[in-house]
Design goal:
Elements: H1 5-14, H2 20-57, H3 59-66, H4 70-73, H5 104-116, H6 121-128, H7 132-150, H8 157-167, E1 173-174, E2 179-180, H9 182-194, H10 196-209, H11 221-225, H12 240-259, H13 263-272, H14 277-293, H15 315-328
Antiparallel strand pairs: 1-2
Biased composition (Basic residues): 320-329
GO molecular function: structural constituent of ribosome
GO biological process, one term: mitochondrial translation
């Protein structure tokens, strides 16, 4: 174990000294080390304060981008994803390992095979090492792109190219020959097969196909969300057919109301309907409780006020009428 200079000096100082001159020299040495420690602590505090001020002003982030952050800001084209957390996108969430991104060229190639219909979705999933749910998502995405082109709406090609470069998504098409590179395509498929997320996706899909469990990320989200005990998020997946059916039902309900004379007639009928004895008793109790809790509106004795407070809610009249019926009976 290596010794520092100060440790050696203290060891030497702790040994029995026979010469007073030697003891004075040792005391001066120890004092010099103490002064050096105080200076180091002072310099350390000053450095920390300076660093804090630098980061607060924004200069620290700029300096970080010029040094360590340069490899995250400037990425070589075709380079694999260079996450801040190493092999995971978020350093504080190491369990989150999403599947490798697919380039737009790869998605177009996959969609073309789906449209051909020569292979099933399961066969394509096995060939490209992509989950069946992901293939279905690509099919929907390409349908949206086709609709955008039909309406002459712009597509964000620049954003797509930039994100593919940052995420390290490689295209299976050779840009020189503009043809599919079989070697590159096979290499990317092998890399997706070795990724840990691929095995998780396959396991979830196999469980879903075998009707085991809730289906995970590949089951019916609408059916899973309706089950008791499932916490719903702000954004929920809604099945398109279910949304369409709900809209048709709402339209039919509105037409039914219109055919019966409108909303005003229905409200009037509901108000005119006789209330049950139980409901009337609960309403009377609520009125009495409100009167007890509300501040008194009676003027002090000997004070005459030109104002008189009258209950116009009708609840008091109902209660008084029922009390009169009881007395007559």
């Amino acid at each position: 174990m290596p010794f520092t200079t100060r440790a050696l000096a203290r060891t030497y100082a702790s040994s029995p000294a026979s010469d007073p001159v030697q003891q004075d020299a040792e005391a001066e040495t120890d004092s010099a080390f103490t002064d050096a420690d105080a200076l180091n602590d002072k310099d350390s505090k000053a450095a920390k304060a300076k660093e804090k001020a630098m980061w607060s002003s924004g200069e620290g982030y700029i300096r970080w981008l010029r040094t360590e952050g340069a490899r995250y800001k400037h990425v070589n084209k075709g380079q694999k994803a260079n996450w801040l957390g190493g092999a995971v996108p978020f350093a504080t969430n190491p369990t989150f390992r999403p599947p490798p991104p697919l380039s737009n060229d790869m998605q177009t190639l996959l969609h073309a095979d789906v449209v051909k219909g020569t292979k099933t979705v399961g066969q394509l999933a096995e060939q490209y090492n992509v989950s069946k749910a992901r293939i279905e998502a690509i099919r929907k995405l390409k349908a949206v792109e086709r609709e955008f082109r039909r309406q002459d709406l712009p597509l964000q090609h620049a954003f797509q190219s930039g994100m593919e470069s940052l995420l390290g998504a490689r295209s299976p098409i050779n840009k020189k020959t503009m043809s599919i590179d079989a070697v590159l395509e096979r290499t990317e498929a092998t890399a997706r097969d070795l990724h840990p997320s691929t095995g998780v996706e396959r396991d979830e899909e196999q469980r879903w196909d075998a009707n085991i469990g809730q289906g995970g990320a590949f089951g019916n989200r609408a059916a899973q969300g309706s089950r008791e005990g499932v916490e719903r998020t702000v954004w929920e997946f809604r099945d398109e057919e279910m949304v369409l059916a709900e809209r048709v039902a709402e339209r039919a309900a509105r037409e039914s109301v219109k055919s019966k004379g409108g909303v005003a007639e229905l409200v009037a009928e509901a108000d005119a309907a006789p209330e049950t004895p139980e409901h009337a008793h609960q309403h009377a109790q609520a009125v009495r409780k409100t009167k007890r809790e509300s501040p008194s509106t009676t003027a002090p004795s000997g004070h005459k006020s030109p104002f008189r407070f009258v209950d116009t809610s009708g609840a008091a009249a109902k209660v008084q009428g029922k009390r009169g019926d009881r007395k007559r009976r």
